[in-house]
Amino acid sequence: MLVSLENVTFGYQGVPTVENVSFSIHENERVGLLGGNGEGKTTLLKLILGELNPDSGSVFLKNGIRIGYLEQNGGLESDSTVFGAMKEVFAEDERILSHLAAAEARLAQAEERELPALSSEIENLHKRIAARDSYHVDVRIRTVLGGMGFDGMQEQIVSTMSGGEKTRLKLAKLLLEDPELLILDEPTNHLDLKTLFWLEDYLSGLKGALLVVSHDRYFLDKLTTRTLELEFGRVTSYKGNYTKYRGLKAEHDKEQQRLYEKQQEEIAHLKDYVDRNLVRATTAKSALSRVNKLERMDILEKPRHAPAPPRFRFEYGEKPYENVILAPRFDLYADRKLLLKQASFSLARGDKCALTGDNGTGKSTLLKFLLQESGAVSHAKYAKIAYYDQENADLDPEDRVLDAFRGPNPSLSQTDARKLLAGAGVDAEDVEKKVKELSGGLKAKLSLAMLEARRGNVLFLDEPTNHLDLPARESLESALREFDGTILFVSHDRRFIEAIANKIALIEDGALTVFRGSYREFLDRQNRETPSPEKKEEKTPSGNYRSKEERAREAKIKARVKEIETRLGALEAEEAELNAALIAHAADYLQVRAITERLEALRAESDALYEEYDTLI
User: Are 361 and 505 contacting, i.e. CB atoms less than 8 angstroms apart?
Assistant: First the structure.
């Protein structure tokens, strides 16, 4: 057992946030922690970490447990380079390798009487190095940095990076630290789809336990085997991932309601019997027995149900012409940087198109570019575009919520405005607040309600699920599936994309490629395709076909990469054999010296190959 909470209660200003909570996390468990916004998930994590002390109850941790914690939007702070910050994780490996180098240097000058002790020391150091895999530290760092999207950024100073990059880098460092319990609070924020898939695969092979808070249903389904739900301050444990949890929770709630209603019927029946028979001499005894039964009864608490999720409904008046958006040839820039050259894009009536691609490739920029008619972009007659901005830039922080909503919709009465806001989950108390006083989730719901009020027949959505809890996301999904208009959207939520999109537009390597079909079909095709130098349909970032010479050069590079990988494998195998031989011949001074010299040669060749490898991939 790594962590155990027993009857833990904690609150702020006398109001419990968590109450009588009990659960345990065991070695190698994969646990998802769910709960609505503001339910207290982060509070629960801080109780486990010891950053908060319970008002009552106990939190037990395994002695000496190593916990890694990624705080939501909590980034790495360092004045080192990216690679240097990761290298700090392996300070002990550096010390051992330095110790070995010094021992091997002494061995060359040692007198015969010193050899047994030195050989034994070197043998022990090799055992520790093999157990820690210290020779491959740089490879592990490069692997994680590459997977987390830091290729080409290894020499950048951490303090110069954006908040999102620092958060990703903190996660990369935690992965390298390999803790016994890894706690992740919304780890998929700031990750593009490519990085998300890589992280899921990496965490699937993690040796330790995992406790994760996430709104990413794909992520939870892939990684978790148990789900803890925090609701009304209580924690309920369900076996299985998110999808399994949903079914089990529905059954659990239904059974709790059935048991409560059955007991209430029994109580009413007993009370009725007592009321009718207690005063009668002939039946008083049996009535008293029912009184005693009522007094002994463990009265069930009335089941509480989570508030209904927001309700969205997107409607419009007139339909646009068939070709809603036409952009036959355009260049796309962001801050003078060319993102797409001579690209083309079209959107037909009824298309529900997801814009995908790595962070920084220009998805939001393209969305905004297509939003406005220009010499390169034309909109169909009667096309009415309603735009959802993930930054909520159209909201004035100082406005009252009701005024912010009615400003663009002056024809709406107060009653209709309040009704729309309430349906979106912005209640009567919140509409009187200033916009700046709202949580991220409430701002998102306000913006979605404003989107509804615009009655657009074409919806442009930039990360609409950000800040929404799972019930709100699923409600939005349902509304957009029912919407028979046209949608162009950017999202990192793969379940959201899968539920809505019938067309995928991918920005990759400076090119825009469109695939008609579902997101799952798109992923299947991506997985089947293996790029080949001979594939004539492959294009350069500028959109031109590659020349024969370019394809031949790429083929040569790929062949060399294969050679290096084969040679590195052979070097690792020989190194393992030599380490075993070093232990076997530890008492033989001449053998130890010869083996040590060969190991040094192998490492020098390995380092040179890795340097070349980095220039090729």
Answer: no
**Residues 446, 448, 451, CA angle at the centre, nearest 5°?**
115
Q: Distance (Å, rounded) from C-alpha 412 to C-alpha 426?
A: 17
**Rounded Cα–Cα distance for residues 499 and 344 (Å):** 26
pLDDT tens digits for range 28-71? 999 999 998 888 999 999 999 999 999 999 999 999 999 999 99
CA distance 325 to 308: 37
Strands 486-490 and 352-357: parallel
For 509-542, write each residue's pLDDT tens digit: 999 999 999 999 999 888 876 444 333 344 443 3
226-231/234-239 β-pairing: antiparallel
519: nearest Cα among 498, 495, 546: 498
φ and ψ at residue 41, rounded to 5 degrees: -65, -45
Residue with tokens 């594939």: 535
| Cα(312)–Cα(424) distance, integer angstroms | 6
- CA-to-CA distance for 172 and 70, rounded, in angstroms? 10
DSSP code at position 316: -
Q: Where are the alpha helices (DSSP H) in 50-114?
A: 82-87, 91-109
Measured CA to CA, the distance from residue 488 to residue 377 in angstroms comes to 15
Lookup: tokens for 14: 């006398």
- Cα–Cα distance measured from residue 233 to residue 211, given in angstroms and rounded to the nearest whole number: 18
Q: Enter the pTM of the model.
A: 0.80
User: How many Cβ atoms from other residues are within 10 Å of residue 292's Cβ?
Assistant: 9
Q: Are 200 and 187 in contact (CB under 8 A)?
A: no
Whole-angstrom distance, CA of residue 252 vs CA of residue 226: 15
Crossing angle of helices 548-584/589-616, nearest 10°? 160
Find out whether 49 and 78 touch, Cβ atoms under 8 Å. Answer: no
**Three-state secondary-structure class, residue 334:** strand
At residue 617 the predicted structure's pLDDT band, cuts being 50, 70 and 90, is low
What does the pLDDT read at residue 565?
Answer: 77
